Each structure stands twice: as structure tokens, then as C-alpha cells.
Amino acid sequence: ELLDQLALLRAQLNKSVHEFDVILSPKRTKGFKWTVNIEHATLKALKDSIHPALENDGAVFNVVCDSGKYSPRNDQVLCEMLRLLISKNNLKITVFIETPSKAFSDWTLGSVCQLFSLSAETEDPTLAVFPLFSCGSIEPSQEVFKNLMLELNSRLDITPINLISIEVTKSIYVYSYLLAGANNFKGVFEVRPQKNLSGPNGHGPVDFTIDLRRTAKTVGVTEVKKDNFVKGVVQCAVQLESSLSNRKRKANELEENPTVGKVFGIVTDAEKFYFMECSLDEQE
């Protein structure tokens, strides 16, 4: 039996073309079988096998299997890794896709569709690719509502707002709404302007975050836009993912509090408000 195993291993090593079972994380497509000549394998070929759109997005790969973790950054190292996997008879691998972090403002709708596996049948997608999110509501306390109206009327008298107002002016009004929302839950939340967020796919300051006072974890992100709501949704989506990825995913937290695995976003021009939700699924 040992001789048979050695003969099988020798045959594997002498063969150049092999088939690997590839599992992706985060999942952009379903797992697939990758047939490759291990003497001529390239990172570009691997990217094309995963998704043609990855060709120019700067994605890098980390490979994990039973024998360890590998980080091929050029074709030569990739080929060496594949030969080693064959020698260890590791034909099932998990490929972790990592996109070098860039500024939130550098993201486009097309690249966000790729990042979150949002179905887009055209090269010029619209916001319709996002699944519909219906958020709930609660009755505000009368005291909080009264104070909000007084504050907004005072701002209108001193700092008028109109269609041509710049984002800074609109932000002044948005802050009043966020403050009222936080005051509706005394001692639970705090509003932080221009907080810096950094995640695996994006970094930079955000207009406002709503943080849990007790843990300082960000549970809400607000992006203020003068008029470009598409750009606002794109930025907010990556900001939400960055916020969520920074949390410690403890199983007992997820079981005790279902909101731990969620973060919410607002994109607004101080008149229209779009709400978003980003949540952890079983894998990511």
C-alpha cells in the first residue's frame, strides 16, 4: 500500500496539469475547479478564473490550505506554491481576496458592485443593484422633537439653506437631526464628526458616525452630499464595510445581540434621506 501511495505521488509530481478545488473568501463567485499547468501558472490567469473584472483592481491573494498559509505576489512564487501543494497532495485551497485599501472617495459604483457581488448586467450600473432596505421607525420623545424644531428654525434664520448650499452648510442641518436621534436614546449613543475609519478596502474621514458610548464601536455612518447621491451611496457602502470589519466578531456577542453584526448608513442632502444596512453573513 505504501508503494502504491509513493507511485501515485510520483505520478502527480511528474504531471504538469492539475485541478484544484478553489473556495473564495470573500465570496465573489461560487467555488470552482481551477485547471492549471503548475509550470506556467500566472496570477493574472488566477484572477481571470475568479472574475474578469479583477484584472485591474489591484487585488492580491492569500492562499490557505491544510499545509499552511501562502501569499504569492508574483508568478514564480505562485508556481513554487502550487508545486509544494501537489507534493503534499493539497488540492483543495481557500483563496482570500484582498483589495489594497484606498480612499473612500476613490470608489466607483462599478467597483463597489464587484466588491459586494452586486449583480450588474451592464457596464454602467445604477443604484437599483442594491437590494431594497426597509428600516423601521419609532416615535420621538416630544421634548426631543420640540428641541429639534426650535434648533432647525434658529438655523434657518441665521444660516439659510437652499438648493445651491454647499455640503458644509447642509452638514450643519444634518447634525441637528443626528443629535435629536441620539438624544432619543439618552446615554446610549454619541455623534462624532469627521471620524477616521479604516478597513480592508477603504480609509479616510467620514462626515458623521454614531458610536456606542459604552464601547466606542461605530453603529452608524452618515455621508452628506450636495446632490450626487450615487457617489454618496458608493462611499457610504465602503465606509459601512470598513466599520463592520473592525469589530471583534465574538460568537457570544452575535448570539446575545443581533445588532452587533450590523451597521447602518445615511446618505442625505439635509432634505432627502437614504438609509442603508450592512450586515455580517455566515462567512463574511
Summarize the structure in words.
With 284 residues, this protein is α/β, with parallel strands linked by helices. It has two domains: 2-100, Ubiquitin-like (UB roll); 104-279, Alpha-Beta Complex (tt1808, chain A), CATH 3.90.1570. The protein contains eight helices and eleven strands. The chain has helices spanning 2-14, 43-50, 75-87, 109-115, 142-158, 167-183, 229-245, 251-256; strands at residues 17-25, 32-37, 60-65, 68-70, 92-98, 102-103, 189-198, 202-212, 218-224, 262-268, 273-279. The strands form two sheets. Strands 6, 7, 8, 9, 10 and 11 form a six-stranded mixed sheet that branches. A hairpin with a 6-residue loop joins strand 1 and strand 2. Helix 5 (142-158) packs antiparallel against helix 6 (167-183). Residues 248-256 have low confidence and may be disordered. It comes from Ambispora gerdemannii. This is 3755_t:CDS:1.
Q: Give helix and strand order, one letter per element, not per position.
A: HEEHEEHEEHHHEEEHHEE
Structural class based on helices, strands and sheet pairing = alpha/beta
Tell me the number of structural domains.
2
The average pLDDT value, as a whole number, equals 84
| CATH fold category name of the largest domain | tt1808, chain A
The outline comes out as elongated
Distance between the termini: 42 Å
The percentage helix is 25-40%
Radius of gyration: 24 Å
Task: Identify low-pLDDT runs.
Answer: 248-256
Name given to the CATH architecture of the largest domain:
Alpha-Beta Complex
- Assigned CATH class of the largest domain: Alpha Beta
Number of H- or I-type helical stretches: 8
Content of β-strand: 25-35%
- Count of individual beta strands: 11
Protein name: 3755_t:CDS:1
